[in-house]
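Sample intake sheet
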Amino acid sequence: MSLLLTIHSIIRWLILLAALAVVIRFAIGWWKKQPFDGVARGLSSAFSGLMDTQWLIGLLFFIWNGLAIENGFAIRQRWEHLVIMTIAVVVAHLPAMWKKKEGDLRYRNGLFAVLAALVLVVVGISLLPGNRWLTISGLF
């Protein structure tokens, strides 16, 4: 089970890198009023795909070990984390809704959706006990 938690801990850094790339690309595209291109679409898909993967691994960990009190995690905190992260995944998929909009609107709406997803992720992680921000469970 610690393997799932380790993978879950590593993927969050990949999500952060993808989110950073998406935020930069979307901000530049919106600012310069560029047409929405394949790079932006690919980055957005990578971000939402990584969020999906993270959610699935977290769900597997929750099902496998969710009802046990371990490492200071209470059942209520696990449920709160799961619900908030589920909402974050839904928000991460919102940019796909605007595929028929003009480029600058897609960039703007996508940028705000990605930032909102990141805020939800920060809130969801903050609910967990201990300082888990800079650690990778199972490695450090």
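Comment: Residues 29 and 107 are 6 Å apart (CA to CA). The mean pLDDT is 86.
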